[in-house]
Amino acid sequence: MTIPSFIYSGFMIEFIYTIIVVFFCFVIYVKTKESYDLTKHKGIRHFRNAFLLFGFSYVMRFFVIAIFFSDFKFGFVVSRDLSAILSMVFTGYLSTLAIFNLIYSSVWKKINDTYFAIISHIAAVISALLVFITASHAIAHEMLFYLQSIIMIIAIVLSLLLLKKKNISSVKIFYTLIFVFWLINLWAIAPRNILSVEIKLIFQIISIIVFVIVYYKVSKWLK
Amino acid sequence: MAKMRKKRDRLEVIFDILKIISNNHNSIKPTPLLRYSNLSPNGFSEYYKELNSKGFIKEITDTKGRMFVTLTDKGFNFLEKYTLILKFIDEFEL
User: Fold this and answer.
1) Are the Cβ atoms of B92 and A35 closer than 8 angstroms?
2) Which residues of B touch A108 (CB under 8 A)?
3) Per residue of chain A (223 residues), what is the pLDDT tens digit?
4) Residue partners of A52: CB distance under 8 A and separation at least 6
């Protein structure tokens, strides 16, 4: 049996990267369980949800990569493009919700819960629908990338306006980096992306460092 | 003019109530608890019901039929972890 060629094309790097990021996302979710159970604090709830959703988003992103890196033909009815589009739909939905949850964890005192739930789910569904109706893997990536970039910019500006603290804290920098690296990771799996394997690797290492720092800050207080 | 005391948030109120119980040898009657908690009767009643239903406190009756409020393990756990949780909330600006 010949070794599939995808092994040599950065697939293993993506696999290891996904495992590490998903691990940290889920560990952050688990570590904050007790503090949420004791306090039912809304900020903690949305903070946890954000990392859980990012974990699932990275898993779905990996499915997209796996579909297109595989040399094997699928033996079932669903076409390769359609399975990639469906994975992108879930990626779009989950990641949009993750972005909203992370922003809302800081501004929940200023915005009503119900409004947040409605707006975030509408935005997530719109993201997913737009990806689906493009019916093209290449366009779906670009669509999601630009849409989430706009959502991210609006959300960050809104949070700066709502919060009294105007100074840029380290936490806001980490949140921004998480968003930016997510967008880069989204772009990196597009068919027309121009990033070399080496450049992607550097971004991935830096994004892992960001997740490690967030995990360290969480576990500093929550054993 | 006396300085206005900052309004306590929900977690702070819960901590204060549980701390009062703990400081009274983990056994206090509801009326003194209300008095020490610095809450209105309606406000206290809401917090009391919440703490009871969520298992932070429990009611015990002595042989003379008098009711006392005590902390559960969960209540003790909250007191122990409160400061750390506050620092976590503060660190991430939640």
Assistant:
1) no
2) 94
3) 454 555 556 788 889 999 999 999 999 999 999 999 989 999 999 999 999 999 999 999 998 888 777 654 444 445 666 777 788 888 989 999 999 999 899 889 888 889 899 999 999 998 888 888 876 666 777 788 888 888 888 877 877 777 665 667 788 888 888 988 998 888 877 766 667 778 888 999 999 999 999 999 999 998 7
4) A25, A26, A29
